[in-house]
Model the fold of this input.
Amino acid sequence: MTKNVQSKLWLIFLHLVNLITTSPVLFHIILAIILTLGLSNCSSSIPNQKSNGHTHFTLVDKKLKEHQYNKPIIIQHGRRKVMYCRTHHRWEVIRSYWNPKEMDYEYYVIKHPKN
Ligand SMILES: [Zn+2]
Done:
């Protein structure tokens, strides 16, 4: 019984592969879907921020303080980035951590020592 289902699934899969490889339109659709998924994945790494006008991006850190930067804040988990904060008029070190419980990034902002 299960073997039957498996071979059926395999046939469907082969049929799909056949469709994708023979139809350039479908191939492009699949490619577009993959690209869209990839892009939405990317944009999920810039939460807690909204663009005000065109020039600055607001970031709310773990202490619920608001900071404004002139570039979007894209930092991978465990990484840090130095950016100029327009709210506090100083250079700041932003650290980013992925919170699996919240399914969102958390940001810790500290003053850059060179201020
Ligand atoms: Zn700041």
